[in-house]
Amino acid sequence: MNYHPDIELLLKYSNGSIEPALSVAIGLHQKQCPECQQQIADLESIGGQNLELMTSSSIKQNSFDRLVADLDKLPQSKELIVQKTNTDLHASNVVATNLTEDDSFYYAIAESDKPYFDQLARFKHDDFEWQKVTSKISSTEVELGDPRFKVEILSFSPHAKIPKHTHLGNEFTLVIQGDFKDQRGEYSVGEFIACDASDEHQPVAGHSGCVCLAITDAPLNFTGLLGPFINWFVRH
Amino acid sequence: MKAQRQVRENLVYWPVSSTHIPPIIKAMPDSSQSKQELANRWKQHMLAIACDRDKNAYKALYIYFAPKIKSFFQQHASESRADEMTHEVFLRVWQKADSYQAGKAQVSTWIFTIARNLKIDILRRKKIIEVDESQSEELAAYDNVNEKLDISRQKIKLSALFKQLNHEQKNVILKVYFEDKSHQVTANELDLSLGVVKSRVRSALKILRHHMGGEKS
């Protein structure tokens, strides 16, 4: 594994301020990357130490009693385990991540991100509605609840060439299946590749084809939604 | 199992009668050995919560961590909202106690991830992505993060890496990335200009990036 998210992305991932789409891509990467797992664990431990050093806010007198009263209303942990199994995360058709039994990962991610991981971790070609881009490339858009990025799964036939292109903004790619290469290197399953506007490249899919999660800034999609963000672009 | 049981039978609860910080913590000298002792105590408390559903251990944990968690949430939330969120964190602590793995993480780390995930859930639920000036700038500033990193990266521990940062840089990184403060708030708290904060963040990230083995090419 040679291509990893940058330290800034890992910092934002570890403290929960990362954009949802990137959170999923980095999550899928780190699942397969022991180095990044270690670094995220380290950052979380720094977060824990820092939490301990925070100044204490005052807690209301009766708040613990209220808490204990609410404990009895919670579903029992056994029910939770059943729920978890039902999500069928570890189905045999898992391609995206070569999942092994990995409960600790599942516990470690936020509840609201789980459906996204499930959707991608159980990636099956037929689950999605594909659009032909060229005879060798198809794409499908994925909803990750993130208006800031356009998220697609791209599927390339063996040896498919993607026309030379630059990027308008940032592009983050996670290899889900197969591999591809460009002038700068070869990328295999789980690798996280970032490109910005200065990069020009011409990717070519490997001999068994390639499926990628591609996350791009899509300023055009923002019209009317995120004024400040667009304004920033206009001003600079 | 027997060993664990013995540990829990001998469990000395931290003072649970008041919401003040237990004096033992204040008295703790700042050495790594006593930090370790402290951490081990919380592990024993968690074990008691997970296996015995021990409410005294739970209360001790609450008294120590709740004021800090509340403070963590108050960066972005009103006081009453921060109270609610702290409440929710502790419901999750109780509910998920058996997923805590003492061999893998400190209790503070585990609680931090629960608080962080709750923050994520709430942000996502609101479907609000706050885009303020500094965040847009950060987004645009995702450098060429495509770095081929060498093998030595595997051996580097980030926490050790943090020691490469000087006190000022570390302070700024902790506030911006772990306490979720905007660059402006960080500047106000540290009595610095916005420009200085931004340049410290940049230089700190550069150092971390450099030591991780991948400088922007």
General shape of chain A = elongated
**Residue share in helices of chain A?**
25-40%
Estimate the helix proportion of chain B, in percent. Answer: 55-70%
Rg from Cα of chain A: 20 Å
Order of helices and strands of chain B: HHHHHHHHHHH
What does this molecule look like?
The complex is a heterodimer of chains A (236) and B (217). Chain A has helices at residues 7-15, 20-32, 34-53, 63-71, 77-86, 103-108, 114-121, 227-235, and strands at residues 131-132, 137-141, 149-156, 171-182, 185-188, 192-195, 204-217. With 236 residues, chain A is of the alpha+beta class. Chain A starts with 6 loop residues before the first helix and ends with a helix. The relative contact order of chain A is 0.15. Residues 78-101 and 219-231 of chain A have low confidence and may be disordered. Helix content of chain B is 65%, strand content 0%. Chain B has helices at 2-9, 23-27, 32-52, 55-73, 79-96, 107-126, 133-140, 158-161, 167-178, 183-190, 194-211. Chain B is globular, with a radius of gyration of 20 Å. The termini of chain B are far apart.
Give a quick set of tags describing it.
heterodimer, A: 236 residues, alpha+beta, seven-stranded antiparallel beta sheet, 8 helices, 36% helix, B: 217 residues, mainly alpha, 65% helix, 0% strand, globular
Short description:
The complex is a heterodimer of chains A (236) and B (217). In chain A, a hairpin with a 2-residue loop joins strand 4 and strand 5 (185-188). Helices cover 36% and strands 21% of the residues of chain A.
